[in-house]
Amino acid sequence: MPLDGLLTALREAQHVCVLTGAGISAESGVPTFREAQSGLWEQYDPLDLATPEAFLRDPDLVWRWYRWRRELVAKAEPNPGHRALVSLAKLVPRFTLVTQNVDGLHQRAGSSDVIEFHGNLFADRCFVESCIIDEEQDSAGGVPVCPGCGGHLRPGVVWFGEAIPERALNDSFAAAADCDVFLSIGTSSLVYPAAGLAEIARNSGATVAEVNPDPTEHAAGFDHAFAAKAGTVLPEILKRMSET
Ligand code: BV8
Hints:
By secondary structure, the chain is of the alpha/beta class. It contains 10 helices and 8 strands. The chain has 2 domains: 148 residues, TPP-binding domain (Rossmann fold), CATH 3.40.50; 69 residues, SIR2/SIRT2 'Small Domain', CATH 3.30.1600. The longest helix is centred in the N-terminal third of the chain and has 17 residues. Bound molecules: ligand BV8. The site of ligand BV8 has 35 residues, from helix 2 and helix 10.
């Protein structure tokens, strides 16, 4: 694996920014967004379910999908790819981790200050911004109700067509523009505005690399592209970084 060029850039970097997608959790057994879903969810396309329209049309169905994902993720464990990023963060002066994932596996691996670009699977929230939900509502399998306004609670994730949380958006864009190395790991780079971060980094002069067994259309424009799994490449990067 031709890591030398990337390793040189990483060793010299003052600020490394990493964007992860569903692919970094694939080796933990969490299906990626574009893999066919298993079991009874096989008939559903996540792109259809992860929308406010789907929720308003059938909140009970959407909640059943999210509860199924919560159970699946709760049984999953962080993998060597997640853990390598925890260690890499300790080897560079400044490290920003932005994830599109909502599974919380980076935090469970030990990463801190994770920017959750698309929210978190395990948070409940109300459509009414001002309603504060400070503990999970017991909904006995139905659609949980907001204790503040009596409306339907929803999972604390960003659906298609919804704005990225302002702090996450601003902090991620600033990190992409400031970093010396940008690593795009386990993402199909199809979902915007997350997929635009690599371009911001590149246009700001950063070294950009991708790790994905199925190279994306952006890979050709990157400085480095490793057609391999995150659980293989990231521990190897960490090993080589630790040798010096
Ligand atoms: C918004 C939370 C505007 C929910 C998710 C241009 C600009 C702006 C917006 C748009 C635009 N064009 C289109 C849009 C609209 C839309 C969009 O991008 N649509 C796509 C489908 C074209 N974007 C939005 O709606 C966004 N909002 O722009 O709002 C706005 C502004 C103001 C006011 C109102 C509105 C919001 C998008 C957020 C959607 N929510 N998740 C939930 O999870 O239930 S996105 C969802 O897709 C997941 O978070 C997932 O992470 C994300 C991206 O997918 P990936 O992570 O890349 O996963 P995927 O399965 O695609 O790929 C996995 C990759 O891993 C593969 O390439 C595979 O090869 C690789 N892999 C597999 N195994 C491994 C591996 N890699 C490494 N190692 C392995 N072992």
